[in-house]
């Protein structure tokens, strides 16, 4: 599959400042930006920035960001699933993972997550993909948000809905290990029935659960 990447940008006001939601961002521009020290949901900030630069350099990789001047304060990643995970079993070139979405704590409350996802789906190339994300409660900032696991799950689901992702069933053991975990999916308009069936085979290893 040829991976077209069309740049989009949107400016919003937050507490008297101009924030830019933009992407996909090339690796050289990512390298030139600072990275907010509180973006640590998945790994320490410096390591996460390096991971984003690496993803941005991949043929299919996409990094969209929220930028406050030269500071990255939020981001979302799209990349092929990890080869070691079940989601790569079908070797589908039109299945891509929304791997991470994060906004720095002091910038929350401005619906930046929803705006990141809306901007991401503005690109017509996304209609060629099944986009999925796996939500695990242990990645959520329950302490910082003051929300319990169910309220946080509801917030995450509404944010993903803004990007067109919906809840899908699966028998994946890690997702099934806690009722708050979930699989969410967006099926592009140009996805054929064969691809949907292949994805269903990945979602369910135990056929009796269909």
From TrEMBL:
CDD domains: NAT_SF. GO terms for molecular function: acetoin dehydrogenase (NAD+) activity; acyltransferase activity, transferring groups other than amino-acyl groups. SUPFAM superfamilies: Acyl-CoA N-acyltransferases (Nat). Coiled coil: none annotated. GO terms for biological process: acetoin catabolic process. Gene3D superfamilies: 3.40.630.30. Residues 19-192 form the N-acetyltransferase domain. This is GNAT family N-acetyltransferase.
């Amino acid at each position: 599959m040829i991976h077209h990447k069309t740049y989009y940008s949107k400016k919003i006001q937050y507490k008297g400042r101009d924030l830019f939601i933009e992407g996909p961002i090339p690796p050289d521009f990512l390298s030139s930006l600072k990275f907010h020290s509180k973006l640590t949901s998945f790994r320490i900030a410096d390591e996460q920035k390096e991971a984003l630069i690496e993803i941005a350099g991949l043929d299919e990789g996409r990094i969209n960001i929220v930028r406050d001047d030269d500071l990255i304060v939020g981001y979302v990643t799209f990349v092929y699933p990890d080869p070691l995970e079940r989601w790569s079993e079908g070797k589908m070139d039109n299945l891509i993972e929304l791997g991470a979405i994060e906004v720095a704590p002091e910038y929350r409350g401005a619906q930046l997550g929803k705006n990141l996802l809306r901007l991401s789906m503005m690109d017509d190339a996304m209609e060629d993909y099944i986009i999925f994300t796996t939500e695990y409660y242990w990645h959520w900032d329950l302490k910082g948000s003051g929300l319990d696991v169910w309220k946080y799950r509801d917030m995450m689901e509404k944010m993903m809905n803004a990007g067109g992702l919906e809840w899908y069933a699966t028998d994946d053991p890690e997702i099934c290990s806690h009722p708050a975990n979930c699989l969410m999916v967006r099926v592009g308009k140009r996805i054929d029935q064969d691809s949907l069936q292949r994805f269903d085979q990945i979602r369910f290893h135990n056929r009796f659960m269909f």
